[in-house]
Write a structure and sequence with these properties.
This protein is α/β, with parallel strands linked by helices. The chain is built from 15 helices and 16 strands. The structure holds pyridoxal-5'-phosphate. One of its GO terms (biological process) is porphyrin-containing compound biosynthetic process.
Length: 444
């Protein structure tokens, strides 16, 4: 299907979004407040949302699978989250103390019960800040200079991890990936002090790690690349063994997978205990947050009670009561019996339907993921579903026309508000999109 045709249809359907974009371009680089927010020909402007639905500036309504990068696991405007936020105002009278308050203890206890590897916890304001603190802690704790990370894994937009964030196009050929700066302006220090590991090849990883074992302080990984490409469980276990054996810390960046792959995150799914864990997105219930948790002896480095100089960590809004109240209201619901499992069932129902339709239309798509996150996979050319192809973009334009939004080229995140009606609506949207893409019409 010709992309230019679909893009001009998109432009015609979205004159107000286009006009907002053109105005934004005059005073904001690329018209967006984050590079990942751009997609061609311009990103949609949204004006409203409710439950599972988003409404754009031109009045089109979408079932939302983007959910603010997966953060809104209960959908938009969940009543319990709204009430919790309201209570913060009514009972505390402020949105921020910048000082200790009781919700901090409640959230720490909740996190410790869901993720037992979290002996000690610090709050930050974003996933970026969480991974930054985790790397600083790990390098300080080990006294080593290098960070190992996996090719294709994203850990937020700070210098030490903005390296080799794009997956290898031919994973089997990338046995020794060279560190590639993913940003203009990154000091050479960071590429010089980063070891890049191939995600799908443990033997190659082990060779590389062995070569650098005295320099590497930590291995950081997304336990599922891009949130939906699982690692080989055997590889994760061997990585845990290797890191323990060589005094290297293992950091699980669970900003995407936390509370989504399973309630206890990917560490519960694999049965592996990392030294440090970073969280974000879901844990803030739709408000900004990040969390670093893990071994007490490592976290204690940033205690102001430490004798000698502590490792520095601070932030005006760390532990913000609004984020913690919203996050606690979210986690309380996720923990209700059957609640999480129902979301996983809905995800499976949707994935099965997409795969059956794709087979019926010979459209060439399958799905990949665990729990409440999945992505579409181009069966013939891209078995790990990370390639940004014109074929996928075409499907995304058609899905948007049919009222389904995941953000072009992005994964699908489920929310509890995706009920039978929303799932059926999405399945029909896929059917119409596959029919148009393949030129086959199986239903009259
Ligand atoms: C695995 C992972 N780590 C870190 C981050 C950065 O989080 P934030 O966007 O909150 O800074 C993200 C964001 O998508 C992420 O997916």
């Amino acid at each position: 299907m010709d992309l230019t045709v679909l893009q001009s249809r998109f432009e015609r359907r979205h004159p107000r979004s286009k006009s907002f974009y053109e105005k934004a371009l005059l005073s904001t680089p690329g018209g967006v407040h984050g590079n990942l927010r751009h997609y061609p020909p311009f990103p949609l402007t949204f004006e409203k949302a409710q439950g599972a639905y988003l409404t754009d500036a031109d009045g089109h309504v979408y079932v939302d699978y983007f959910l603010s990068y997966g953060a809104l696991i209960l959908g938009h405007g969940d009543p319990a989250v709204r009430m919790a936020v309201q209570e913060v105002w009514e009972q505390q009278g402020t949105s921020s103390f910048g000082a200790p308050h009781p919700l901090e203890l409640e959230m720490v206890d909740t996190l410790k019960s869901l993720l037992p590897s979290l002996e000690s916890v610090r709050f930050t304001n974003s996933g970026l800040e969480a991974t930054l603190l985790s790397v600083r802690l790990a390098l300080a704790y080990t006294g080593r200079t290098h960070l190992a990370k996996f090719e294709g894994h994203y850990h937020g937009s700070h210098d030490h991890v903005l390296i080799s964030i794009h997956p290898a196009e031919a994973p089997h050929e990338a046995r020794r990936p060279a560190p590639k700066a993913a940003s203009f302006g990154l000091p050479d220090y960071f590429t010089d002090h980063t070891i890049v590991l191939p995600y799908h090849d443990w033997d190659a990883c082990e060779d590389i790690l062995n070569q650098h074992k005295t320099e590497i302080g930590a291995v950081i990984m997304e336990p599922m690349m891009a949130g939906f490409v699982p690692a080989d469980p055997g590889m994760v276990k061997r990585l845990r063994e290797w890191t323990s054996q060589h005094g290297v810390l293992l950091i699980f960046d669970e900003v995407k997978t936390g509370f989504r792959v399973s309630l206890g995150g990917a560490q519960e799914y694999y049965g592996v205990k990392p030294d440090l864990t970073t969280l974000g997105k879901v844990v803030g219930g739709g408000f900004p947050i990040g969390v670093v948790g893990g071994r007490r002896d490592i976290l204690d480095l940033c205690s102001p009670l430490r004798s000698g100089q502590p490792l520095f960590h601070s932030g005006t809004f760390n532990g913000n009561p609004v984020s913690l109240a919203a996050g606690l209201a979210t986690l309380r619901q996720l923990r209700q019996p059957g609640f999480f499992d129902n979301m996983v069932k809905s995800a499976m129902k949707l994935r099965d339907a997409i795969e059956s339709l794709s087979q019926a239309y010979n459209a060439g798509w399958s799905t990949l993921g665990v729990g409440t996150i999945f992505n579409l996979v181009d069966t013939a050319t891209d078995p790990q579903g990370t390639a940004k192809t014109a074929r996928r973009l075409a499907l995304d334009y058609l899905l948007m026309e049919q009222g389904v939004f995941s953000k072009p080229l992005n994964r699908f995140s489920m929310a509890s508000v995706h009920g039978p009606q929303e799932i059926d609506q999405t399945i029909s949207a896929f059917e119409r999109a596959f029919a148009e893409l393949t030129g086959r019409h199986l239903r009259s």
